[in-house]
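Researcher: Sequence recovery benchmark, item below. Answer with residues only.
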């Protein structure tokens, strides 16, 4: 859950704070912004937060980052984010201390970015990547930040530059389950990611585990769980609800940037054992080519989630549940797979019209396996300052 601040309040607090330490540290400010607009091409379509009327708020944002160098290897960083889809309410995205243990090892503590993906650290900095947005099939996990520690170590292995990052902490977020809110927590979250870079080649692998808990107000799910408990199917109920269940995230990625050709991709797998949550299998590949200031691209994304039938199978084996309750359990579990399964096809371009700004245009087609197809066209101006 991100901390919420009113704009005036956060600005005043920041000014007072940085004024108080300005005598002891060098303060550097930088930021980034995005003005984006998009719409679906048909009146009955909805995809990636867009509908059939031009929307300028869904993906627009403004961010300001302040960093203070306290000397002797110690520094502090805070990032304030304002998103259009949240009515430009200001959030604290990052707030952490860093300490250089050695020239090649750094430890961070506070609110940090979860390193699930290649572009996790630059997730909101559209200027840092070619697309209008990172591929949503892979990058749509609702968790982006966590509270805890990370340690980064850089070294070389032959001709490769190696970076190893370890993480430890907790994360929380409010998400939607079948259209109703759920307060979620990831406890005992820890993991490791490894990246290797050699000239034009980039390779990455990540693995994280934790304990997931969901406090869900979804009426359909709660009714099904109650029916299971009342009929003595507590084991089946435990296999459906999310209460300190083991969760894992695994991913691999690659990037090739050679002779103005950019070819990259990521494959991820997310699991929450003993729960209603479908196992998530997501991937994308993308190809782009730089023509001076113009970089057209194409991207293919695949969602191939798999429902977890364990709770339903246990309920069937009990032989005491009415057919309509069994059907409801099966439908709910299958919906976790079917609501997401499908493919995205994107074509777009980036135009670097300024040293610190780019214009992007994108057409993305969603081909749902069980849901309605949709097309969205979007534009964005990304800038850094």
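Model:
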């Amino acid at each position: 859950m991100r901390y919420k601040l009113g704009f005036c309040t956060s600005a005043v607090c920041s000014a007072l704070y940085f004024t108080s330490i300005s005598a002891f540290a060098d303060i550097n400010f930088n930021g980034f912004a995005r003005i984006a607009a998009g719409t679906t091409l048909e009146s009955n379509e909805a995809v990636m937060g867009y509908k059939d009327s031009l929307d300028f708020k869904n993906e627009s944002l403004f961010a300001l980052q302040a960093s203070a160098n306290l000397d002797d290897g110690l520094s502090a960083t805070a990032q304030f984010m304002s998103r259009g889809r949240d009515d430009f309410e200001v959030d604290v995205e990052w707030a952490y201390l860093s300490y250089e243990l050695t020239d090649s090892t750094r430890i961070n503590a506070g609110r940090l970015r979860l390193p699930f993906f290649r572009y996790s650290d630059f997730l909101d900095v559209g200027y840092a990547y070619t697309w209008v947005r990172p591929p949503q099939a892979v990058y749509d996990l609702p968790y982006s930040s966590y509270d805890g520690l990370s340690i980064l170590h850089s070294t070389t292995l032959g001709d490769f530059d190696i970076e190893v990052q370890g993480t430890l902490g907790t994360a929380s977020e409010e998400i939607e389950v079948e259209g109703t809110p759920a307060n979620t927590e990831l406890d005992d979250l820890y993991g490791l990611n490894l990246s290797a870079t050699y000239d034009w080649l980039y390779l990455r692998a990540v693995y994280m585990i934790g304990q997931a808990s969901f406090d869900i107000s979804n009426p359909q799910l709660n009714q099904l769980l109650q029916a299971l408990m009342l009929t003595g199917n507590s084991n089946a109920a435990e296999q459906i609800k999310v209460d300190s269940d083991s969760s894992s995230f695994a991913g691999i990625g690659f990037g090739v940037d050679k002779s103005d050709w950019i070819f990259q991709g990521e494959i991820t797998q997310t699991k929450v054992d003993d729960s209603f949550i479908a196992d998530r299998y997501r991937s994308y590949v993308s190809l782009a080519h730089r023509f001076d200031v113009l970089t057209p691209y194409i991207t293919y994304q695949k969602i191939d989630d798999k429902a977890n039938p364990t709770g339903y199978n246990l309920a069937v084996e009990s032989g005491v549940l009415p057919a309509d309750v069994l059907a409801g359990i099966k439908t709910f579990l299958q919906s976790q797979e079917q609501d997401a399964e499908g493919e995205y096809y994107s074509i777009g371009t980036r135009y670097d019209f300024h040293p610190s700004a780019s214009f992007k245009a994108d057409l993305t087609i969603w081909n749902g396996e069980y849901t309605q197809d949709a097309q969205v066209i979007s534009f964005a101006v990304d800038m850094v300052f």
